[in-house]
Amino acid sequence: xKLNKENVINIHWYLLTLLGASCIxxxxxxxxxxxxNNTGHRNLAFLVFNVLFSAFRNSLARxxxxxxxxxYGIVMNVLTRYLTKIxxxxxxFFVANALSTACFYIN
Length: 107
Hints:
With about 110 residues, the chain is mostly helical. The chain has helices spanning about 10-40, 45-70, 85-105. Helix 1 packs antiparallel against helix 2 (about 45-70) and helix 2 runs antiparallel to helix 3 (about 85-105).
């Protein structure tokens, strides 16, 4: 494991985080629908958590796609020049995605 540690770049940790977040989103969505089927009404706190965590996962996936498109980890190792733009785009996508998912749940 320590033999190839220099080949691991930060984007690998982002992908591992995305995989873990995807597992959590799937489990919480299943649990929420199971609770909804058993009780007949939705738990508001769990619904808000589900919407925000799903938006976080989608934003993280879009962030990783953006980083790979910019060449992070392959062409350049630091993103100091694009850091504010990437952060702003990711935050705006998070807000838009959270609103879209909330509208889907309300309807």
